[in-house]
Write a structure and sequence with these properties.
43% of the residues lie in helices and 14% in strands. With 305 residues, it is α/β, with parallel strands linked by helices. It folds into 2 domains: 121 residues, Nitrogenase molybdenum iron protein domain (Rossmann fold); 128 residues, Nitrogenase molybdenum iron protein domain (Rossmann fold), CATH 3.40.50.1980. Helix 6 runs parallel beside helix 12.
Length: 305
């Protein structure tokens, strides 16, 4: 073998690596050069020349989704109740659904504002020339679409499907832990002390259905129906879920002492932090399913009386 052959091979390998790096860089530059077009849940089309670099989120679930999908340092302001992850604690708080701080948002000069379809006062923000992408996340299908829009905005569209696949795997794993004695049981998930419920078409109701339970709220009532207390008594839920601090008052409600869930002690109460996770349609959906499964496993150890 000629003494210069190993050196030549090293040189060729170096050239090949450089070519691969250049190709990757070109592909990345080309991807960023392509305009980003998304359609929000009002049907409005939004076009961006490049992924937004200054992002405001006006819903805790949207804050969490943007973070998990890679927004990181691009978040410049969030809704007042956004509290996860801890790294966002220093970001400006910009009000909530009913009192969006338009002037404070304008001063941040965001490239895009991510908000709920029910957020108020955002027309004024749009009149000032800011782009507001309004998203709905009532159901699992809504959530999947929202994650796809956010990931597309961030320039990482494949991340949404990877995240959704992980969430579905986590829900399936949680479902495997639910005791057979609870499968098919009727449940009532109370929202904020009632009289609203997580209906069959809500993301909470759909998660519990995947865990094997049946909702007392019919699908035709929508995702978060207002239920008459007498309706709940007649429906006789066998499992009741909600805020822990409010469940002690269940026995004082007229007729509720005879409900199977109350008589059997099949009550799943969650502290505020865990309840917030359960009621946010975001990237912690799989973890929320695990919390539900853990409680169902605890109360299902004994047989109903």
């Amino acid at each position: 073998m000629s003494p210069w052959m190993p050196a030549r091979r090293r040189a060729l390998r170096a050239v090949a690596r450089l070519g691969a790096l250049l190709a990757f860089g070109w592909a990345l530059a080309t991807a960023w050069a392509q305009p980003i077009v998304v359609r929000d849940d009002r049907g409005t089309e939004h076009r961006f020349a490049a992924p937004p670099q200054r992002i405001v989120t006006l819903l805790p679930s949207l804050t969490e989704a943007a973070w998990v999908l890679g927004a990181g340092a691009r978040l410049v302001g969030v809704e007042r109740h956004s509290d996860w992850p801890a790294q966002i604690s220093a970001l400006p708080r910009l009000g909530g659904l009913d009192d969006v701080q338009v002037e404070a948002i304008a001063r941040l000069k965001p490239d895009v504002v991510l908000a709920s379809t029910s957020a108020r006062a955002l027309d004024r923000l749009e009149a000032l020339g800011f782009t507001v992408v309004r998203l709905r996340s009532d159901s699992h299908a809504d959530m999947r679409r929202t994650l796809a829009v956010v990931a597309q905005l961030l320039g990482t569209p494949d991340e949404a499907e990877r995240l959704w696949a992980r969430l579905q795997a986590e829900i399936a794993a949680a479902g495997a832990r639910v005791p057979a004695a609870l499968r098919g049981r009727r449940f009532y998930f109370e929202i904020g002390g009632g009289p609203y419920a997580a209906g069959a078409t809500s993301f909470i109701g759909e998660t519990l259905a995947q865990l094997g339970l049946n909702n007392i709220a019919p699908r035709e009532l929508g995702p978060f129906p207002k239920l008459n207390p007498e309706f709940i008594v007649r429906a006789r839920p066998e499992v009741i879920l909600g805020l822990q601090r409010e469940q002690a008052a269940l026995l004082a409600r007229p007729g509720w002492h005879v409900l199977p869930a109350v008589q059997q002690g099949w009550l799943c109460g969650f502290d505020s932090a865990h309840y917030d996770m359960l009621t946010r349609p975001g990237p912690r959906l799989g973890e929320a399913a695990g919390l539900l499964a853990d409680c169902l496993a605890r109360i299902g150890h004994g047989r109903p009386r």
